[in-house]
Specification:
Elements: E1 3-9, E2 14-21, H1 25-33, H2 35-38, E3 49-54, E4 61-67, E5 73-84, E6 88-96, E7 109-118, E8 121-130, H3 133-141, H4 144-152, H5 155-160, E9 172-175, E10 180-187, H6 191-197, H7 201-207, E11 214-220, E12 228-235, E13 244-254, E14 258-265, E15 273-282, E16 285-293, H8 297-304, H9 308-326
Antiparallel strand pairs: 1-2, 2-8, 3-4, 4-5, 5-6, 6-7, 7-8, 9-10, 10-16, 11-12, 12-13, 13-14, 14-15, 15-16
Helix pairs in contact: 7-9
């Protein structure tokens, strides 16, 4: 059982939970930084979590929901008010609807997660601060303490499975719900290097190519919210295929961590997809996490059936090689 102590201070309106783990601090930190790992233990076993957004940087947000035994959903959000990579982060935690909007009639807590070394590995000290004694008692009565213990009891299995999340593995695609897919890959390189490679036209021409035999004929980058981008490809003489182009609008930008765009293929009718890309520093490089939202399940499945993820893996492998060559 990782949890070694739980202390409630009714005068200070805090609850502090200490848990010890037989792994280095970096390994424990990455379990919280990577939504693929976090959702394997955030929430009790009978209420597994799905993270549709996870931005571990100051000013970032996380949106998640837990699914109960009968399929019911309970949503939550984090606002990251402070992050010291590898050492601590602080959040405002609250309840949310399925769109991630805060439920203002429910309590919020300010929670500090502190990671430290121990002779046997690492320690996580989680201190939740409540707005009032009534809210503390309400959340404890709702099972906050028991739920946290049950959730942390699952972390050991996640920490033992480093290979599934390490650099050098191919791209992973996960269906989050009926319309969303999350594409994840660790890229060897810093967050800034990966961000720059997505915004430098000359670098984009070197790696954003999909399968062998294609070249980019146009690279128009959107660098400010409201601008549009256009990327066009054409096959070389040795490859069969028709030229095509993707275009869209930059909706949000928070360099070098997060950006949100729309995406449409020219000549194809229908509403655009929404791409939310987050870059997070992890052991071995940068976790690139791309959540794509489609207008329908049918559209999502049709696009995945084209071999989209295989083309993305080929491009990301080139991206990694481009960064390593420049280092």
């Amino acid at each position: 059982m990782p949890v070694t102590s739980v202390e409630k201070d009714l005068d200070a309106l805090t609850m502090t939970i200490i848990a010890d783990f037989p792994v280095p601090v970096r390994r424990l930190w990455d379990a919280y930084a990577d939504p693929r790992q976090l959702e394997k233990f955030w929430g009790p076993p009978e209420w597994p979590a799905t993270f549709t957004r996870h931005d571990l940087y100051p000013g970032g947000r996380s949106h998640y929901y837990m699914t109960g035994p009968d399929g019911e959903h309970a949503g939550g959000y984090w606002e990251f008010t402070a992050v010291e990579e590898g050492r601590s982060f602080e959040t405002i935690d609250g309840f949310a609807d399925e769109d991630g909007a805060p439920k203002t009639d429910m309590p919020t807590t300010r929670t500090v997660y502190e990671f430290s070394e121990t002779p046997g590995g690492s320690r996580l000290t989680t201190t939740a601060s409540f707005n009032s004694l009534e809210e503390l008692e309400q959340l404890v009565a709702m099972g906050m303490e028991e739920g946290t213990k049950a959730a942390m009891a699952q972390i050991d299995d996640v920490l033992a499975d480093l290979r599934s999340f390490a650099a050098g593995r191919a791209l992973e695609a996960q269906l989050l719900n009926d319309t969303q897919v999350r594409v994840s890959r660790v890229i060897r390189g810093t967050v800034q290097q990966v961000w720059d490679a997505h915004h430098d036209p000359e670098l984009l021409r070197r790696w954003l190519l999909g399968p062998d035999g294609w070249v980019m004929s146009e690279v128009t980058v959107a660098n400010a919210v409201g601008q549009t981008y256009r990327y066009a490809w054409e096959p070389t003489e040795d490859v069969d295929g028709e030229p095509f182009a993707l275009t869209g609008e930059l909706l949000e930008s928070d360099p070098p961590h997060r950006e949100v765009t729309t995406e449409s293929m020219e000549g194809i009718e229908g509403p655009p997809a929404r791409n939310e890309q987050t870059l997070t520093a992890v052991q071995g490089g940068t976790l690139l996490s791309l959540v794509i939202t489609y207008a329908s399940t049918e559209m999502r499945d049709a696009i995945l059936a084209t071999g989209m993820t295989e083309g993305m893996e080929a491009s990301y492998a080139r991206l990694e090689a481009t960064i390593l060559e420049a280092a």
